[in-house]
Fold these 2 entries.
Entry 1:
Amino acid sequence: MTPRQIADLTAAHAAALVLYARQWCDTPEDVVQDAFCKLVVPGTPPADPTAWLFRVVRNAAVDAGRSARRRVRREQAAARPVRWFVEAEVDGLDAETAVSALESLPPDLREVIIARLWGGLTLEQIATAAGCSVSTAHRRFEAGIAALRERFGVPCQK
């Protein structure tokens, strides 16, 4: 197609194509622009460029709308609060209280506490998983336990 033919098609149909695409997606201008870009790709031009443009815009708009809806569902799912425990009670602790206490810990301490207490990992295994030394894993575990004891008002047992 010549540049003149493309310009004429754009002038004659761009606004209608945007309106047409808007019924399926929130980005109709992008969809129409992509359709015109596909039209100028070297090769055999379509027999009826107007019908071809409407078909390409329709297909792309439907795809864009589906993609946007999937993205919204994923974002909504990610925004939901994470349930740490399925049970209402965990090892004699109220699950909400346990979650609140765990969330109050710095991430590096929380990681070690969960891996040790609920995962049953050894300090060597925790060190491997966390990418730290065994002594660092031990220090983090001790610091985490001390922070939890302080939070719950439980004195250290000696």
Entry 2:
Amino acid sequence: MPILANITERLDAELKEALKSRDDLRVSVIRMVKASLKNKSIEKMGTLTDDDTLSVLSSLAKQRRESIEQFEKAGRTDLSEKEKKELEIIQSYLPKQLSPQEIDEIILSAIKECNATSLNDMGKVMKIVTPKTKGVADGKIVSQRVKELLSK
């Protein structure tokens, strides 16, 4: 069964539960996710593929991570905590995230595959790594690890 059908059904069911239990944060996050998926569907003028769904969820998670970083720099822990809770809810709809070891394995195999030797080859490595880590790893972390492993 496609991921999208599962996520849509799950969002509907969890929205009802959150409304019943008066979990305002969860209600607002689920509504935001549903609205983002609907907007993407309208933008695409058709039904979403699993990749589209993952892409929407990943970008929502990325926005939260960036907000957390900005709020912490500004010393706004109250806002940072809210974003962390939202991120946690969004991540519950994403596939299980890769561990640092799994990310390194993917990167190292990509480095071997394209015979990368220096930071100049980062583009080649990322071209191989990105499709394998999309939706299951933060692109910023992956990019950082590729730089670190290529500069050794």
